[in-house]
Amino acid sequence: MIEAIDVFRAFEPYRRKAIVAATGTSGRHWSEVSSYPARDVSLGGAMGQATSAALGLALGLPEEKVVLFDSEGSLLMNLGVLATIAGKGPENFYHFLLDNECYATTGGQPVPNAAGIDYAALAKGAGYASAYRFDDLEDFTISVGEILNEPGPVFVSVKIVPEIENLPMGMRPARQGRSRAEMFRDLRAELGIAAD
Amino acid sequence: MATQQQAQILRPETLVDAFRQNGVTHVITIPDSETNYLYELMLEQPWLDIVPVSREGEAFGIAMGLNLAGKTPVVLIQNTGMLESGDSIRGMALDAGFPLVMVVGYRGWTRRGKITDSVARYTEPFLNAFGINYYLVEYDADGDRLNTAFEEARETRQPVAVLIGDEYHGWNR
């Protein structure tokens, strides 16, 4: 298993101008690593739907590379989206899955069939152009640059170490950073998209 | 007689014309048993991109992403799927605050007789609970309500529903 922040550190040198959305408990580390915050965006709001929103973004911006760091708990709530993505086949879409096998934010309870699901096989079977799985940081670091040069939709499943939170919500430190609306405003400004 | 009968139904062309007039770029949809003519007509439009989804809740996340990209999506689903989509409507449409017209097949609704399909009974209470305004469209003559819905969505930056009370065949009257 790999630390989530190491996944982001290995990815970042190859990010270039890609739009990046990171979800889930582990996704918070992306802001510690990102060198291009104006192209970072939060697509959360309803569990499972960040994946759909990232697809919408990729379909609406076919000239831009869109990278989603998803979580397995979220994906399981919207598993049909794999077929939806494959059906549209966006070549600019890169779907990374950070799989910690549990609901880390609720105390670490396992997701259904936690260790027994091959998400890359699901994605490939749904019709993604290619799919990979990693549980070793060195392998991931060697491969990620080439993977990002492939035509999408590409799926990359990475086993990560769970960072379990068990304090009551009110006792957890507040996360700093831009709101979803602020990130939308900043991304539109970066891309020259007028507000509707 | 044929012309008179024609006037009594809602033609799919009326919806597609409204989509074009209002700058719609994408229709995110799960076809239902009543909307195949509309689906086939939409596929023929080179200016329109159809996004088929696996479950209706996806449609609202995809719509949010498309809006962020500067596009103009419409969601086209049946009322059963709208009920399934509650949390997505909340988190990805209402909370995100962007113009979105939801065209919703009003399964089970009839102007005459007793409504026996539970989904028809729950449709309007659902929309009222979420604070989503809606317009009933039954005939071609109701077509201006489509433009009204688009205008209202743009003005309020909120979802507005269009309930298709009689889906292109005139059987509900």
Walk me through what this model shows:
The complex is a heterodimer of chains A (196) and B (173). Chain A is an alpha/beta fold and 196 residues long. Chain A is built from nine helices and eight strands. In chain A, strand 5 and strand 6 (109-110) form a beta hairpin. In chain A, helix 1 (4-11) runs parallel beside helix 8. In chain B, strands 2-1-3-4-6-5 form a six-stranded parallel beta sheet, sandwiched between helices. In chain B, helix 8 links the parallel strand 5 (134-137) and strand 6 (159-164). Chain B is 46% helix and 17% strand. Chain B is an alpha/beta fold and 173 residues long. Chain B is globular. In chain B, helix 2 crosses helix 3. Chains A and B meet through helix 4, helix 6 and helix 9 of A and strand 2, helix 4 and helix 6 of B.
Number of domains of chain A: 1
Strand order across the biggest sheet of chain B? 2-1-3-4-6-5
The major pleated sheet of chain B works out as: 6 strands, parallel
Which two chains share the most extensive interface? A-B, 36 and 35 residues
Q: Give, in order, the helices and strands of chain A.
A: HEHHEHEHHEEEHEHEH
Q: Quaternary state, please? A: heterodimer
Terminus-to-terminus distance of chain B: 17 Å
| CATH secondary-structure class of chain B | Alpha Beta
CATH architecture of chain B: 3-Layer(aba) Sandwich
Kindly state the percentage of residues in helix of chain B: 40-55%
Distance between the termini of chain A: 43 Å
Tertiary shape of chain B = globular
Total number of helical segments of chain A? 9
Overall strand count of chain A: 8
